[in-house]
N-acetylneuraminate (7)9-O-acetyltransferase (Myotis lucifugus), 753 residues
Amino acid sequence: GNDSCEYLLSSGRFLGEKVWQPHSCMMHKYKYNEAKNCLVDKHIAFIGDSRIRQLFYSFVKIINPQFKEEGNKHENIPFEDKIASVKVDFLWHPEVNGSMKQCIKVWAEDSVAKPHVIVAGAATWSIKIHNGSNEALSQYKMNITSIAPLLEKLAKTSDVYWVLQDPVYEDLLSENRKMITNEKIDAYNEAAVSVLNSSTRNSKSHVKMFSVSKLIAQETIMESLDGLHLPESSRETSAMILMNVYCNKILKPVDGSCCQPRPPLTLMQKLAACFFTLSIVGYLIFYIIYRNAHRKNKPCTDLESGEEKKNIINTPVSPLEILLQSLCKLGLIMAYFYMCDRANLFMKENKFYTHSTFFIPIIYILVLGVFYNENTKETKVLNREQTDEWKGWMQLVILIYHISGASTFLPVYMHVRVLVAAYLFQTGYGHFSYFWVKGDFGIHRVCQVLFRLNFLVVVLCIVMDRPYQFYYFVPLVTVWFMVIYVTLALWPQIIQKKANGSCFWHFGLLLKLAFLLLCICFLAYSQGAFEKIFSLWPLSKCFELKGNVYEWWFRWRLDRYVVFHGMLFAFTYLTLQKRQILSEGKGEPLFSNKISNVLLFISVVSFLTYSIWASSCKNKAECNELHPSVSVVQILAFILIRNIPGYARSVYSSFFAWFGKISLELFTCQYHIWLAADTRGILVLIPGNPMLNIIVSTFIFVCVAHEISQITNDLAQIIIPKDNSSLLKRLACIAAFFCGLLILSSIQDKSRY
């Protein structure tokens, strides 16, 4: 449903200590600058007793964390931030009586000076002063009945919240408060709800019930100092809920899905919907015509033998059918993406990290990976099965890292940074090896790689209305692929076949790599030059995020050397292999026994040393600064440990390798159909059962990623033909398509502003 505000105000649960999870949506934690930005030129009024005063203090502390709780408690307390032009007042009216009514009446009849938000509530003083008598309850009901029309009138132009009374911890109450029992509080709450909800006969009341604080108090009131007032953490949660109710629809934070309306469809999204609808209709028409045309090929009965004859000639599948079928499936998948993360159809929840939610699934997949093992087809270092296995287990660890919210735990964060670096290391190793050995610098190879890397992301940018840089890993591997290609393709083109005749060519290649390293160092330490390059149009359209390219610079700089390390490793390995220095036979150690044992010992020590260093990190910024230079240590250590023993090279995990073949699709799809709110939360398909939900959503997510991988491969064969003349025509069409996207993007940007 669309009204997640009602859930935010009325229901939820604690994920852990002090972490509140509203039912069905995600709550953003507002910082003071965000709060000021939202509440500029706004007036918020809190009216009620000491509990409302507590809520007032917590709300003001979101705007100004230095604000102190001081002054006479039983009088009005003003707060004003003149710079942001924010005004928050607490008005002391501990009973629902004529005094409170007069205050509300002034607001209701004043056409100018109404507060934008009114938070009211009171009851415990009435119970205390009148010793919990039934007459006081009847009077309370009469008084709230008299102010209900005024509140309803105010609610038409302002946001009005009536705070229901929180339970008390009766054992801690002082003697003069013993008459305030939970039974009495429930009776007063029932009276308030019955009156305010029935204040309008023909429609729903505009006065919103703030009942969620009762649920929060039920879990935390035991920590109260006096049994009546809530602990500070609970008040902060209630204040943050109020901030989310009002500000989410204004600031639209990504991780604050509560109270946010569904974003309107953009022009490109509408065009994409039309395109996929036409593709589905086109495929259905094609399928019906194709089926009718081939009815004659059905098996017929041989009159003599009584057996069926089958037409054994298989009709080849036409490219048009493959194209329409792929677009049809892709359209249905994109509809699912949109429903999961844009349409407010499914629930979303905040992440909450515990060690068990990260390490137990890691152990589980490790056991599965070891259980499913097979012999490799070849026993070379980093053979295809092994690299697929490596990508697979890394991708599974990264997925668990994302869904568990483990980025808050620095040792896990640092180790996952190495996994991302290892992906880029493989990019350098794999593409360098291909160009060095094959010498194929043709445009077909380049287009195939670029298409396979970017197809899904380009479609998601259109369907999900997200910038290209949002899916940061794909731009990263795309740019590095082009860097590798340009480095090796530029004159002089040095490949293995040419270099075998003379060491001079090896030296020439090393000079090329040295120049590449020099360029990397220059851009890494010259942020201005980097930003100028990528701020040029149309590159800026690809690499800007939130109006600048800082995020792209940060991502690129974080792993700036590792692709170079991958290229250098590939060059060293292939040179040693060509000179037959390595022993890559089945079951044979990579080097002589003595050298293998020494290298294996050094690798294990290096691997553990890096892990100890990463686990002892205290400051993320400092560790990120060292990461680009030292991440290669653990990567090389892992490669040597995995490849020096002959028996280790001879086997691989088919379980991990299967996931490795679709690792890019898994990494990209997780943004919207496994996680939610652009990776900030978790998608909830089945509410109330987290375990079943994760099983179902994971199954669908993996199936979709596998299907998209198949679709990408099929379309790559059609859209990127091997014939150069046909390919150039397709490239002209693709260029025209991207020009159209740029024009539509400019139109959308203007309409937004």
